[in-house]
Write a structure and sequence with these properties.
Largest sheet: 6 strands, mixed
Strand order of the largest sheet: 3-4-2-1-14-13
Shape: globular
Distance between the termini: 11 Å
Number of helices: 6
CATH topology: Deoxyribonuclease I, Chain A
Length: 260
DNA sequence: ATGGTCGATGGTCGA
């Protein structure tokens, strides 16, 4: 099974690029973040044309998450179960016997901003839900833009982020908590010690200088971790070029595994 | 040291 997560930074601006990427990479499941589309503005027909089903939780202007899959999607839930958040930041579905979540974790903005507390609360609510789901027989995969670099290796220069979000101990503790609940960080498990980023700021030539962060993550339960075949960041996709020149500021993260 | 680039929007704000 081949799965991926990708923050596309507006699906309207990126639809042709995303369709091309799926056609080339033939993933079974793609978790998308930041569609920036209203609920009924999603491109279900365009995905159907290339043989994919899709579910979308949209809001318009900001946020918006989706799952695109070859297989049938069941048990779809919009948002985290029992959540009090009204923003479109989570969607879940079962595909081929695996439960998937596409997640867009709040940015946090700054450590003294209310949005930072909102981010931590979102992660705590997610952990509550994960706690219930890991004990089920259904394998679980979380994919998304977590807006957290789990470790020093995941930031190009940690001294540039002192006192900022994405690297704080409170945020990293939430990631560690997901691991303690039984979820493996698929990229890090498959590539221990490798510095690879998934996001580079549009500004200041950050991509050219490889000044990025690994903030897009795939987590999986044991049956996924044990069968891992490959986990890779598609850095080429961040370069842009071709008919649809403009890239997202995030690169897709792809994991391939045999379900054990 | 500062600001820089995108996308949605139709002012600026969010990232």
């Amino acid at each position: 099974m081949k799965v991926a997560t990708w923050n596309v930074n507006s699906l309207k601006a990126r639809i042709n690029r995303v369709l091309d990427w799926i056609a080339t990479n033939q993933v079974d499941v793609l978790m998308i973040q930041e569609t920036k589309l209203k609920q009924d503005a999603f491109f279900h027909d365009r995905f159907a044309e290339i043989g994919y089903r899709s579910v979308h939780f949209g809001q318009g202007q900001w946020n918006g998450v989706a799952i695109v899959a070859k297989g049938e999607m069941t048990e779809v839930s919009y948002g985290l179960l029992g959540e009090t958040f009204d923003e479109a930041r989570a969607i879940s579905a079962v595909v081929d016997g695996v439960r998937f979540f596409s997640l867009y974790v709040p940015n946090g903005r700054s450590l003294d901003n209310d949005h930072y507390r909102y981010k931590l609360d979102f992660l705590d609510k997610l952990a509550e839900q994960v706690k219930d789901l890991v004990s089920s027989d259904t394998p679980l995969i979380l994919g998304g833009d977590f807006n957290i670099a789990p470790n020093s290796l995941d930031v190009y220069d940690e001294s540039a982020f002192v006192g900022m979000t994405h690297v704080s101990s409170e945020e990293r503790r939430r990631v560690e908590n997901l691991r303690e609940l039984g979820l493996g960080d698929l990229f890090r498990i498959y590539n221990p010690g490798e510095a690879a980023f998934t996001w580079w700021d549009y500004r200041n030539g950050a991509f050219h200088k490889n000044q990025g962060m690994r903030i897009d993550l795939l987590f999986g339960t044991n049956s996924v971790v044990k069968g891992l075949c490959n986990v890779v960041v598609d850095r080429e996709e961040r370069k842009g070029g071709g008919k649809e020149e403009r890239p997202s500021d995030h690169a897709p993260l792809i994991a391939t595994f045999d379900l054990l």
